[in-house]
Description:
Oligomer: heterodimer
Helix content of chain B: over 70%
Order of helices and strands of chain A: HHHH
Strand content of chain A: under 5%
Largest interface: A-B, 71 and 64 residues
Largest sheet of chain B: 2 strands, antiparallel
Largest sheet of chain A: none
Structural class of chain A: mainly alpha
Amino acid sequence: MNTDAIGAALGLALTLAFWFGRGSWSPLSAMFPNAVIVTLGLLSLGLLLKSFLRPTIRAVFAEGNRLRILLTAAVLFMWIWSMNYAGFYLSSVVFFAIMTVYIAAASRRVTLRNVGVWVVIVAAEVAVLHYVFANLLSVRLPMGPFAP
Amino acid sequence: MDILGAALQQLFIPYHLMLVLVGTTVGLFVGAMPGLSATMALAVLLPFTFTMPALAGLIALGSVYMGAIYGGAFAAILINAPGTPSSIATTFEGYPMAKAGRAEEAISAATIASVLGGLFGVFALLVLAPPLAAFSLRFGPPEYFWVAILGLTLIGGLSGGTLIKGLMGGALGVLISIIGVSPIGGESRFTYGFPALQGGVELIVALIGLFVIPELLVMAGTGVAALGKTPLGRTRGLFLRTAKKVLSMPGNLLRSVVIGEIVSVIPGAGGNIAGLLAYNEAKRASKHPEEYGKGSLEGLVASESSNNVTVAGSMVPLLTLGIPGAPPDALILGAMLMHGLRPGAELFTTQGALTYGFILSMGLSAIVMLPIGLLGGRLIYQAVIRVPPYFLVPTVATMAILGSYALRNNMTDVMIMLVLGLLGYVLKEIGFHPAPIALGLILGPIAETGFVQSRLMGSAYAYPYLKLVESPLSQILVALSVLAIVWPMFASWRQRRQQAGGGGSA
Lengths: 148, 506
């Protein structure tokens, strides 16, 4: 694929997103971001020109199973989103375990016994991390339904 | 000399030696965890130091600081996550080395370079503190602006092939750094109606997203761990072989530690800029620039030696002028003030034994890093390679989530980390290296503040922007920036000409 063309399109999209994201700022607050947005736009146009004259052609998203990468990203998103409601411990145990089973299933046979053992290991690992952060480092982790 | 003797006497008591040992070890493991910064470690430790004698408290803080900056190299080498922002440049060579089964060599080299850098920083602090402090005072807003511009010229060396993509990445990084409340006008910028974005994008959150998430997705997609195992037999004598290699590059070491020292005495510029600058200069001066990005020992040594100089280096403006150059320094300043110690010349005379004891303790901490680092590094490495990918990926994900959250106890930061991580993955696939984006994020705020404040300072002039180039130091920085841009072009042109000449005569 012509990665220069994709990069230029993405650059232009980001330029527009930042350009229309501006507000009624004072001149001192606006001058620097305006200059950088214009620079990004010009560079994107330059890359677009390059994509016609001397394009870079390479395979993209070729490393690894694309579906598994997409689903891992989705699991990560749900993991973080659910933390607001279920708290750090619960959501981490659930999604850590899901991710473990899902990635392991790609390379080996996963039995019910494996799943049981892994869930115990995951629960213990997350408990240790929870303890270190909440008790030793005084980080107020999301508690979810366990909030006092 | 009397004061130094008294300082050494105070330092070498078992309680203080134990504090150096424990502090360095704790700092090392905190720094090795992505998202847990030196600042956080010092902030947690600070209240405990209030009840300690002044010297003991400062020794504990200094040792943790030294250990944490060094510990950042472990995460950078083993999982491509800069444990602290100071180790961004370490990821460029350390991780490729680890992938190629050279993790132990990378850890050994990082340890030796960090020890040498740490010792140089302490030496410079002992000998050059007064003139360096005077030098740091000459930096005003215009000079800061040009320092940022000089830093941005590094993009050429960090682009990973396509300069225009590197420049676009840099611009994107600067724009991301602008998100939040404006430092001058106080308006919310690029928050798109989300009040949670007013706090801006934390540097370490962006770094975790840009560097860790893409690797994590690839690991999940391929189902194999990224790290290669060091072949048996290659580990015997590895440390001595690596030490020999590191010490056989004195020019690289000297250049890197001098860069680290100069950058560290400028308040606000930290180990991250020092590491990137030293890395870039090492690449420029290298006889084998083609090896960079594929596991060059030179690049790794440059980054690690320079970033560890900054720990003691940033104490120059702190101890002499009371200016904390970086957030951890502000915490050390807080501890000093709590113990009734006021920065300035008096600190080196009336409190000389205590001050020099503190400075020397950082040197001792740098030396202690050698055994602790080698042992700790080997333990962490063995743990990482033994964990199967299906446990490693979610473990790294948990650390990334915790590291992003713990900075401000904020779930928005975690979501920002993921979004930037996914964007970083897509950008990497289409040829955008994350390093220029990180550079833009670091230098964007410095450049903007310097630019706008210079513009305000020049309001009384007919041409306000002339303020930017008024001082001789600004002019030197402008010249260096121009040279940094023009020299690689000239070198490339000369190389092409030589090749063409060689081809013609063959």
